[in-house]
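Hi everyone,

Forwarding the result from last night's run.
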Amino acid sequence: MSQPVEFFPSFASHWIDTDAGRIFARSAGSGPPLVLLHGFPQSMVMWRRVAPLLAQHFHVVVMDLRGYGWSSAPDSDNGELYTKRMMADDVVQAMEDLGHIRFRLAGHDRGARLGYRLALDHPGRIEKLALLDILPTVEVWKNIRSGKTPAAHWTFLSQPAPTPEHEIAAQGPDAYFEGLMAKWSKSQTLQAFDRAALEAYRSAWGDTSRIHAFCEDYRAGAAQDLAADEADVAAGRTLSCPAQILWGNFYLTASARTPLDVWRAGFAPQATGTAIDAGHFLAEENPQATAEALLSFF
């Protein structure tokens, strides 16, 4: 796999040993620490247009989640090593290695899921939390099971191994993952992703161990992550830190309630937020508006 250095030309590189293996991170800027976490099926490269803008005001750390990008992809069964609780612990270990006990966090998609899990499990760690274009996992599964949300990739990827892995290999990883990315973009094309970024994403998902890691991530989402959310709902737990909810005005549109309404009714009663003119990939489809919203919050 290769990642051109020009994605983050002024950022230092870090290889950090954690319980998952090695986590790859990059950092730049001065000020309060702010970690940026990517989503599926991408890597830290998704932040290439936003991170430099935030680094003018914060010490920004971007990292590849376990199983994604350049970070280690530990072998796993039934989602055991890809729970958001364990992936959140990677972030804690990596940030401690870089000298940060408390920090701000912005996560997109899967990165947002481990972000709110981290904030619920370790309320003293997160000063402020921004969640980009997700609903709580417990809400997603409720909508899927009621028929409100088709979300075929959630049920497909969370099937027992090796069914989805084999089907993705048969279809071709580029065709499968790029098909999802185009479908979730407001333009219904790949125009928001420049050629270099697509090559970085292809380089990662072309590795069969990472396709398995993606599936394990979703298997955890259907089992351990859902159980963790349900336990917190039953216990009445909510986020103790300020939370910002950002969403595209195209992707999360199945409900009459806005994503902000959903979060306020559950884990984040005091959350603030706004829609961004974009599909699912806010930081790539509308980086300027995304950066401005994050700067105003953080």
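The radius of gyration is 17 Å.

Cheers,
N.
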